[in-house]
Specification:
Chain A is mainly α. Chain A has seven helices and no strands. The chains are: A mainly alpha, B alpha+beta.
Chain lengths: 171, 306
């Protein structure tokens, strides 16, 4: 394979895309939609992205990128800085350690896996934020946020799969 | 030789994965460390937040515009649909308000006379900084907004944020061109208020739900559902008299409050520039007029309240 400057840039772009897409999701997540009650339980789109890339292309989303994306999420959403960095990394590590489980599995199984891991992520973040504020944070909103995240997972994951097939076939 | 490379490979693989695992654990520890650091050094975290938010503000500004337009269009259609009912309601309202206007005129005249008798010194007139909501942040763990007005428009930490309906929160962090608003429903929000016509003192405390609570009522004082809540101005944080909400219910679990402002409706927010900061910022009489005129050149529209 020849590696002219264009090819190298192309390769670099392909390698950066998952991280960049996840960053974009963090930003999209906070755009005001003016839907009553929605912003409190808005689905955690970046969590879906971290799960997806960890399951399919962990090399394209290294751990330090997950850490930075988590920090960015904390900074933008006003959560205690470090909480989402921790949670995203935990999700990333959990998926990587079960990588064999995800290979070649149907979409439904992937969804099921996400439902378990996202539940764990919700509990961890609830515990961390409650500990940070030294008070019990309202658990109901966390639960509804979890349900909504679960609900939009197929749509977001489908988009990622399409994108992956279109751009990453060489990989 | 081949066996040698094989051996090296066999040795390198676990070392590599060990190193990766070590790096991963290191990042986890770093994330945890950031949380503890955030608990210890709040100011540092706030300034990091302000800088990053500033960098993203232009993107958010652009992204939020089309959605604002769409939501306006939807509102428009909805308004068209119940124009007749709305008209009826407004007519009734107007009749009621005309009575109130007469009362207010009488009171105003009386007030003026009484103030004249007492040599009353009026408080400082607040001026406004207006910003557009470019991000509705938080989710389950924090309730906040990001505005597209910042330090260069005269936004200062601690200013009260209001809309036409009432108080929504205060400025928690200021970047150069963006500001972060902590809503009154956030867990960290504590605002001294007066309740009802008795003007009972209390603290309006957010709890991350839609209904903040009233705490620290003076013993023996009671409030009842429907009482109006206004800011008291105690502690010098907020101007007094800003409407904040109504007492929604009183029971054993506490006093729950319905805020006047609906979060999903927020598009434009006014920040009240008032009080101490305004007085301190006034140029000394000996200061050269140049700096004075520069201060008026701010990009953000600053209008004196009529």
């Amino acid at each position: 394979m020849t590696s002219g400057p264009w090819q190298r840039m192309d390769l670099l772009a392909r390698q950066l895309m998952p991280s960049m897409l996840t960053l974009v999701l963090v930003i999209i997540n906070v755009v005001p939609l003016h839907i009553p009650g929605f912003s409190r339980v808005a689905p955690l789109l970046p969590l879906i992205a971290v799960y997806h890339w960890a399951a399919f292309r962990p090399r394209l989303l290294p751990a330090y990128a997950v850490f930075l994306i988590g920090l960015f999420q904390d900074i933008l959403t006003g959560a205690p800085i470090g909480v989402n960095a921790f949670v995203f990394l935990a999700v990333y590590g959990a998926v990587l350690s079960q990588k064999r489980f995800f290979i070649g599995k149907s979409f439904f199984i992937l969804w099921l896996g996400f439902s378990l891991i996202a539940a764990g992520a919700s509990v961890i973040s609830w515990v961390l934020v409650s500990a940070f504020h030294l008070t019990l944070v309202e658990p109901r909103t966390v639960f509804f946020q979890y349900l909504l995240t679960l609900g939009v997972f197929p749509a977001v994951a489908w988009l990622f799969l399409r994108w992956q097939r279109a751009f990453l076939r060489l990989d | 030789m081949r066996q040698g490379t094989k051996f090296v490979n066999r040795l390198a693989q676990p070392i590599k994965s060990l190193a990766q695992r070590f790096a991963f654990m290191g990042l986890l520890m770093a994330a945890f460390g950031m949380m503890i650091l955030g608990k210890v050094d709040v100011l540092l975290m706030d300034s990091i937040r302000a800088h990053v938010t500033d960098a993203v503000a232009p993107i958010l500004d652009v992204l939020s515009r089309p959605i604002d337009s769409v939501s306006k269009a939807v509102d428009h259609l909805r308004e068209l649909a119940d124009l007749r009912d709305e008209n009826q309601r407004l007519r009734e309202n107007q009749a009621r308000l005309l009575q109130w206007q007469a009362v207010a005129r009488n009171l105003e005249a009386e007030n003026r006379i009484l103030k004249g008798l007492l040599n009353y010194v009026p408080g400082p007139e607040p001026s406004f900084i207006t910003g557009r909501v470019i991000a509705d942040t938080g989710g389950a763990f924090a309730h906040g907004l990001i505005l597209n007005a910042g330090a260069r428009d005269g936004v200062v930490r601690g200013q009260a944020a209001i809309t036409g309906d009432g108080l929504i929160g205060r400025v928690a962090g200021v970047g150069d061109r963006s500001a972060r608003i902590l809503l009154i429903t956030d867990l960290n929000s504590r605002i001294p208020v007066l309740v009802g016509s008795e003007r009972t003192r209390a603290i309006l405390a957010g709890n991350n739900s839609d209904h903040p609570r009233l705490i620290h009522l003076a013993s023996g004082e009671t409030v009842s559902a429907g009482d109006r809540i206004i800011t008291s101005g105690h502690g010098g944080a907020f101007p007094p008299g800003l409407p904040a909400g109504l007492v929604a219910s009183v029971n054993d679990g506490g006093i729950s409050v319905q805020p006047f402002v609906r979060r999903d409706r927020l598009e434009v927010v006014r920040l009240l520039d008032f009080g101490l900061a305004g007085i301190l910022a006034l140029p000394k009489p000996s200061a050269d007029p140049k700096s004075n005129s520069k201060a008026g050149d701010h990009k953000g529209a600053r209008a004196r309240k009529p």
